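Page 47, continued from p. 46.
Same chain as before, 332 aa.
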Amino acid sequence: MATIRDVARRAGVSVATAARALGEYGYVSAATRERVLAAARALDYHPNAIARSMIKGRTQTLAVIVSDNANPFFASVVRGIEDVVLAKGYAIMLCNADEDPEKESMYLRTVRQKRVDGLIISPSGGPATFLRSLIANGTPVVQTDRRVAGLAADAVLIDNRAGVRAAIEHLLRLGHRRIGIISGPRRLYTGRERLNAYLTALRDARLPVLDELILEGTFKEESGHRLVGQLLRLRRRPTALFVANNLMTIGALLGLKEAGVRIPEQMAVVGFDDMDWAPILTPPLTAVAQPGYDLGTAAGRLLLERLTGVYAGRPRVVELQPKLIVRKSCGG
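Result:
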């Protein structure tokens, strides 16, 4: 493996000059720089990234912590982030917190140890101690999909309330008055926002809020399957069901199928987050579509603006709009 000494010898310069030319710091004439680069190419020399980051004070690496990498929504978000930051020469270190605050804290410690240049995170609802420490030490942080109350960091969010309101109002227009919900965890921003929007929609329609129709899931498929069974065991079942994320929707649909419940004749269903498979279900699923890719690109741009000094002001909040996609799972 070629070393910087080999490059310097081939280019006919000192090791210090070769290091400046390859590290892009200090003064080196254009002709000398080109001679050093040509020698490096000929020898297939690759600079030591760790040493280079110590000199430049940058690792050219960004950390992305998502709450569940098995969720296709977050795959779209990460793709959006990657497309933006890769074009500016940054690599991504992807971490999966799996909706576990302790695992998230472990990754945040790793982020600090690795001295990444910036962080994009979908918080898992745990204490924000490590996040606040990173920010205090000068690491730019952007929250995506979710936010921590009072955290001095940019955030790119979905207007959850608008999406849920559109879904519940659609069900109300179809004549449903007994509408159940499988919500996400209330410790999470998205869980609270979507549940509160459901409650507001019912109150605005002057309908009673019935505890037996409000069940709290985990944003995982298993909880959707388990909780829809609980709703089906009620003496008076709901006539419609709103499920607060895509994975729980899969579980709920499986539970309804196993119980022989016909959709939408016996129960209308709306899911939050439109997936590629939604139109090919029988019947096709009505769902609230989130612009996951756009969420990622917006988060990437905000982080780059912090890193490059284009923006150094107060924390910003960008809110993107969801869209209700009406198909056949509600009838009408």
